[in-house]
Amino acid sequence: MSNRLKNHALAAAALGLGLALVSPPAGRAAPVAAAACTWQATSWDLPAETNGGVLEGYSGSRYAVGTTGRFVPLSGLVDPRGTLWDNGKVVQRATAATPGYRDVNAAGRIVGYDYVNGRLVGVTIGRDGRATALPGNPAWDGYSAELVNNAGDVVGYADIGTRDVVVLWPASAPGTYRELPSPADVRTIHPVDVDEQGRIVATTGTSSGGGLVRDTDGQWRVLAAQVAGGYSNPNAIRNGRVVGSQGTDSGHAATEWTARGVLVRTFRNSGSASAIGGNGTVGGRTTVSAGQRTVLWRDGVVVEQPATVPWTFQLRWISDDESTLVGSDGGRPVQHRCS
User: Fold this and answer.
1) Could you tell me which of 9, 31, 39 has the C-alpha nearest to residue 327?
2) How high is the pLDDT of residue 271?
3) How many other CB atoms are there within 10 angstroms of residue 35's CB atom?
4) What is the pLDDT, as a whole number, of residue 210?
5) Are 305 and 34 in contact (CB under 8 A)?
6) Which residues, other chains included, contact 245 with Cβ-Cβ below 8 Å and sequence gap of 6+?
């Protein structure tokens, strides 16, 4: 079993979170995230026996999943367990360290991983907390379900010897799976997001190129860099628009690409783009004086730097209606809602 499989459960408890935002395509209505907003913070509930948590997946509206536990300095989360939130309220917590909760869709379908006879296995998780294994290839060393869209398509990865492969469990063919081989020079690949049309973005372990996007034509393409040798790191995809970050000739910058990997733009004085709202607004971080703050972009132009959102907030997602920014602050899930 590879080190990545052995460390999978530990990775789920990590507290580091990236962030970002983007803009809406022409013809779309302007997002709720306008300068008139007053963003009001609400910390989400935590189970009584815990004091910290990290979000792993968000449905775009009411549901989110992640891991909760007791945060101990220098040790991270102790007794981490998968957790489901409904509108910021805890409605389910695993009774043991596994199954791990990785993503949830608008229907409340949870996907993640469990260990069966010491082998990592991708699963769906019911409202009773029971894990049901997704079908897999016996030749795989292990596999995990990482993402689910509202259509019910599940995306994950499998370890096969010294290589990884992205795996799709299509909603249109229940009980089946498809391996989605990556380019020959890619040995390590991890899917990070899937949109409603089934496009996938992934990070790789290659020393050049970095991020990949798989469009609806079934082809993987490298996310183009602004400069030779640049390393691209995608964070989100929605309606074929990809956002993330990359190294540039002036440092680190939030970036947008097409679903064919074509560079659209970089955002000046920024760190990383992490989310796209339902109307196309992009969110992330920008440099303000000597620090970083949450910022919202539209069509490459800053439309708001929310004054009431503290610099400690780490943005992960923008809701479908763009009224809510979801992320973490101080080691617990937090949302900022426009009012």
Assistant:
1) 39
2) 81
3) 10
4) 85
5) no
6) 18, 20, 232, 233, 235, 252, 253, 254, 255, 271, 272, 273
